[in-house]
Design brief:
It contains 15 helices and four strands. The protein is mostly helical and 401 residues long. The chain has a four-stranded mixed beta sheet with strand order 2-1-3-4, sandwiched between helices. α11 runs parallel beside α13. It is a multi-pass membrane protein. GO terms for molecular function: ABC-type transporter activity. This is ABC-2 type transport system permease protein.
Length: 401
């Protein structure tokens, strides 16, 4: 009776072994640590800059003498024009000194019946627009008084008069924070797919050129080696994405830059991670298979450029179209196509307004594509990875037995 224990590895045990090796090696690499740290620092720095920008005002204006009565009307006028103006009642002499030393952008003087502005050299265009509108309101009020009318009542009636809009479809209100989060999501997805996808390709060629692959394939099957490498690098990319997204979310909420609900912010990070995983596994399978066709690192770029162009094109379309036209129909359609969905859909979802059925359909289509890619990429990888020397033609890799 044979009592020798069976030491053969199971199919998925071999995949896990390869994946574990990739995770341990890459998590300790200086490149991974440096890239993650620099990205987190840049994201936090961006958050602080946005905090400073949001916390300031468009102009600081002093009001003196009779012009102090214009404090509230000036703030109201600026608000209707989308501006924020800090107004400070001051003594005229002190106000002139503050204009001279730059503490104030302008000083309103006079009896308040008209706009008289003191500036150091020239007046800002946006501030001039606000003051011109206020001057027009003052002139209108004076004419109303001459006709024995009530300026306050007329101003209220004018302010309440609005056009009645009847949309055929309910519009979605995109706010600035959603647009910024969408852009950040697009950049992170693009960088992660680019860096981690190329890492898969470079790792395949490195093992092939050093003949390590021959030793590995003596104990495990080609598809196990490819799947383990993709899975291991995917885990490393996931750790990186969670760290970057988590730090960015905490920084935005802690500084008050993000004023949207916590659930919406967390949802954006969760969907960012989901789309990274979907996009990474889809593209990395292709990168691994195509990289197996060559034996030199300098040839990697040439073989992975065609699929990489879809990642780049999706990213470029997103950042160039969505900020000015979040509801663009071309981007909406392309975001459902599996080749573009990993870059475009997370950007659209971060901006909001994506119907549930569209998000679900995009996920289903990518999930449906991945098994086909596993089969196709596995065939190419199996038939090309052991053939060193000259580049293996794709047609030959597909035909080989």
């Amino acid at each position: 009776m044979n009592t020798t224990p069976d030491v053969r590895m199971g199919k998925w045990e071999a995949v896990g072994l390869v994946a574990g090796r990739e995770v341990k090696t890459r998590l300790k690499s200086k490149a991974f640590l440096a890239t993650t740290a620099v990205t987190i620092v840049l994201l936090i720095g961006f958050t602080l800059v946005m905090k400073l920008v949001q916390g300031g005002s468009d102009a600081s204006v002093g009001v003196a003498g009779g012009s102090t009565a214009l404090e509230a009307p000036l703030k109201s006028t600026a608000e209707t024009l989308g501006q924020t103006i800090d107004v400070h009642p001051v003594d005229e002499a002190a106000g002139r000194r503050q204009v001279d030393d730059g503490s104030l952008d302008a000083l309103l003087v006079g009896d308040g019946s008209k706009i008289v502005v003191v500036v150091k050299k020239d007046i800002d265009g946006k501030l001039r627009s606000a003051l011109d509108v206020l001057a027009g309101r003052l002139a209108l009020n004076q004419e109303i008084v001459k006709l024995n009318g009530d300026p306050a009542a007329i101003s209220q009636a004018v302010a309440e008069a609005k056009a009645v809009v009847e949309p055929l479809e309910p519009p979605f209100d995109y706010n600035g924070q959603q647009l910024v989060m969408g852009m950040i999501a697009g950049v992170l997805i693009y960088m992660s797919l680019l860096i981690n996808g190329q890492s898969v390709a470079q790792g395949v060629v490195e093992e092939k050129s050093s003949r390590v692959v021959e030793l590995l394939l003596a104990t495990i099957q080609p598809w196990q080696l490819m799947a383990g490498k993709v899975l291991g690098i995917g885990v490393v990319g996931l750790v990186q994405m969670v760290a970057i997204g988590g730090f960015g979310l905490v920084a935005g909420l802690a500084t008050g830059v993000l004023t949207i609900s916590l659930s919406a912010a967390v949802g954006t990070v969760v969907w960012l991670i989901v789309w990274f995983l979907l996009g990474f596994f889809a593209y990395s399978l292709v990168f691994a298979a195509l990289a197996a066709l060559v034996s030199r690192q300098e040839d990697v770029g040439g073989v992975i450029t065609p699929p990489l162009m879809f990642v780049i094109l999706g990213y470029v379309l997103g950042i160039s179209i969505l900020p000015s036209d979040p509801g663009n129909h071309l981007v909406e359609v392309l975001s459902l196509v599996p080749l573009f969905a990993p870059t475009l859909m997370p950007m659209r979802m971060a901006m909001g307004g994506v119907p549930v059925w569209e998000a679900g359909l995009a996920v289903v289509l990518v999930l449906a594509l991945i098994p086909a890619l596993v089969w196709l990429s596995g065939r190419i990888y199996r038939n090309a990875v052991m053939r060193s020397g000259a580049k293996v033609k794709l047609v030959d890799a597909l035909r080989a037995a």
